[in-house]
Amino acid sequence: MPKYSPSSQAKLNTCHPLIIKVFNHVIIDGPDHSIVCGARPVAEQQELYAQGRTKPGKIVTNVDGVNDLSKHNKSPSEAVDAIPYPTGYNSVPRFKIFGAYVLGVASAMGVPLYWGADWDKDWDIDEHKFIDLPHFELRL
Question: What does the domain layout of the chain look like in residue ranges?
Fold first, then answer.
């Protein structure tokens, strides 16, 4: 039976029980993937926010972790970042298959999960200005 690596499982375990429920089903019956982030300390959120602003790189978040908390900054985390395996971050088609599967499982379980590829469908697009393919979050 498929299962998470110890690293992925530890990250998933920092998440809200509804996220754990969905992703435990996905790892057994769905596309293979890795969990890359569950709960995120505020200091790490600040580092990510600095990227593309005061540090090199592209902007990956609009949430600074001080004035505005990410759902990753909650305990338990109301967000999880997961990437399809083995293609990782570089395969948009694989992410589309993976994201659709995760959302289908969540919907069937009655879990209000949103995907970072759908910001413009459910959120104010000006708030985000980017697509976050690995990101899934609860809308409670």
Answer: 6-39+74-138
